Amino acid sequence: MKSYVVRRSILDGFTFAFLIASLAVWIINPTDEQALNMRVNVALFAAAFILGTFVSHVLTKLKVTTLGESLFQPPYKKNKEAVAWYKTFSAWQLIVLLVGLMIVSIIKTKFSIYELLNEDGFNGAIRLFKGIGSPNFDILPKAILNIIETIFMAFLATALAIPFAFVLSFVSAKNVMTGKVGFSIYLAMRTLFNIMRSIEALVWAIIFSVWVGIGPFAGMLALMIHSIASLAKQYSEMVETVSEGPIEGVQSCGANKLQTIWYAIVPQVVLPYVSFTVYRWDINVRMATIIGLVGGGGIGTLLVQYQGQAMWPEVGTIIVVIAVVVWAMDQASAYIREALK
Amino acid sequence: MSVKPILSIKNLKKTYPNGVQALKGVSFDVKKGEFLVVIGLSGSGKSTMLRCINRLHEPTSGNLVFNDGKVEKDLAKIEKPAEIKWLRQNVGMIFQHFNLIPRHSVLSNVLMGKLSKTSTLKSLFGMFSDEDVAEAMKYLKLVGIADKAHIRADQLSGGQQQRVAIARALTQNPQILLADEPVASLDPATCHVVMDYLRKVNQELGITIVCNLHFLSLVRQYATRVVALKGGELVYEGDPKNIDEAWFEKIYGAGAKEVHIN
Asked: Which of A17, A73, A233, A277 would bridge with A49, disulfide CB 3.0–4.6 Å?
């Protein structure tokens, strides 16, 4: 089957199934027990999906352009006549879909203007802002000591990630890994990086805080794992865009694979590498703060301690310190990256 | 007595993975010490042919018998990395876009020619022997660019870069030098400078040259022999002086006009 037909069927199938399922939930109003019965619900949704693809197919056969068809149809099938948008099926399908999504998400997030303007809650927020707005600078030395921990945590995580990411970036670049064996290694590495990156640093921090105990070491390891995957991906994308000329030139001199990488590829990627790495350190400082919240050490841990005791002036001090450091890192990394261009 | 050709190409075919047949069975000999020029339109298979000879591209079938009087070997049958290394030592190449390492110095670029004879570990630390450096400087002098040895390669003009590329290829001590459109991205004046250096390499060092060219006026001036490719097939082989109007039209198609550069 043509791939655009598959894509159109999946998109249309999902939009129809979503609308059918939302309507069904609204009409039937299932109990919790019914809603948690996964087998039946998945079967029902699958049935709705199949029905949707069928409807999509029939409509396409009737020359009605569905949303999927209008998005994915190949250029030669495109209708040359301009039709006003409100006369097309696909436009209305999109509007109904968006309205449906909006309604369901408002219900799901328990969106409520009342809660936002409720007097109790509002007063609580004012108290909090007042506290934060009048920071208690007595704890400044402690906050600074902790943010230093955070900065070094981020630095070590970045520094330790560089050699791993450097080596892995060539192993996971399509233009280096040629041949059957090479391509399978490339695919395996790419998949591994995607898995590593799709697990948030926060989750890695939870894993490592069980492994090595709560504290900056766990936070550093979490950031390192995440940095390796992110840097290796960015690095390898750089490797894939190098120009072929120098590679051919060095190969024509009888260089082996390692010599070719070192002399033809590395000089072309070293500047972007440095730029990415500085940016990664910057990101890691920000992430390290968040990771501290789940016990990764540094300023985040301090923040969560004060927040737990509702000591808002102290929290205010910490927010100021974090803001200053993040702003400074951001500026510094921007300047360094600009200078490297 | 007939001397065996240094390179004998027999029925060379190359089909790319996308199905394009770049070479449809090309056969001719390259004689030792000659300046052989290959002409033909873009897409006629000239570049593919050169890249098959030094195995930057894999030939689909055919033979490439190399014979320098000591070793006889079919270059198309080579598979081991060590043999590929041996092949590249004997067959140097220069390119239309020079293919230097832009951020490295001229000298460092020329030393690339010694990569195949330097151990991997030493080469990764840039530890080339004094003899290698002296040899690199010798060839830089030969192409008249020794004073630029420590300048970054991307700061040189096109013609100078091509001369660095020639020096790099010479540092491999090759017996054959392949040149893929060496002057196609240069202005007419620089073009002759580079071609003159290639002739010097051919005549003084006795290195056999196989050169792809566009301009017939250059061909007549520099070539000792010419082969022409059209659509992946050999359509002419002979003396450059014998390419007349009729042959020109046959090679480049009816209606083509010869462009002269001085």
From this structure: A17
Q: Does a structural domain hold residue B168? A: no
ipTM of model? 0.89
Q: Does A264 touch chain B (CB under 8 A)?
A: yes
B226: helix, coil or strand?
Answer: strand
Chain Cα centroid distance, residue A158: 19
Domains of chain A by residue range: 3-114, 132-340
B236's enclosing H/E stretch is strand B233-238
What is the tally of structural domains in chain B? 1
d(CA B193, CA B213): 15
A340 lies within 8 A of chain B by CB: no
Q: Residue B199 sits in a domain of what CATH number? A: 3.40.50.300
| Torsion angle of the four alpha carbons B174, B179, B180, B186, in this order, in degrees rounded to the nearest 10 | 130
- Looking at the complex, does the CB of residue A238 fall below 8 Å from at least one CB of chain B? no
Tell me if B164 sits within 8 A of B139, measured CB to CB.
no
Does residue B149 sit within a domain? no
- Per-residue pLDDT in tens (0 to 9) along chain B, 262 residues: 467 899 999 999 999 988 889 999 999 999 999 999 999 888 889 999 999 999 999 999 999 999 888 888 898 888 888 899 999 999 999 999 999 998 899 999 999 999 988 888 998 888 899 999 999 999 999 999 999 999 999 999 999 999 999 999 999 999 999 999 999 889 888 999 999 999 999 999 999 999 999 888 889 899 999 999 998 999 889 888 888 777 878 888 766 666 666 5
Q: Do A254 and B116 lie within an 8 Å CB cutoff?
A: yes
Residue B41, in any domain of the structure? yes
The domain in which residue B224 lies consists of 7-98+175-252
Give me the sheet containing B7-15, strands edge to edge. B21-30, B7-15, B61-67, B72-74
Q: Using CB atoms, pick whichever of A254, A267, A270 lies closest to residue B172.
A: A254
Q: Could you tell me how many CB contacts below 8 A there are between chain A and chain B? A: 79
Residue B243's contacts (CB-CB under 8 Å, 6 or more residues apart) are: B216, B219, B220, B226, B228, B236, B251
Distance between A279 CA and the closest CA of chain B, angstroms:
23
By DSSP bridging, strand B91-94 and strand B208-212 are unpaired
Q: b vs e for A158-175, b when ≥16 Cβ sit within 10 Å of the residue's Cβ?
A: bebbbebbbebbbbbbee
Residues 6+ apart with CB under 8 A from B143: B163, B164, B166, B167, B197
Number of H helices, E strands in chain B: 9, 10
DSSP states along B140-151: HHHTT-GGGTTS
A178 at interface of B, judged by CB pairs closer than 8 A? no
The CATH number of the structural domain formed by A132-340 is 1.10.3720.10
With an 8 Å Cβ cutoff, are A258 and B101 in contact? no
B205 belongs to a structural domain: yes
Could you tell me if B112 and A255 are in contact, meaning their C-beta atoms sit under 8 angstroms apart? Answer: yes
B239 and B226 Cβ atoms separated by less than 8 Å: yes
Helix (H) or strand (E) holding B92: strand B91-94
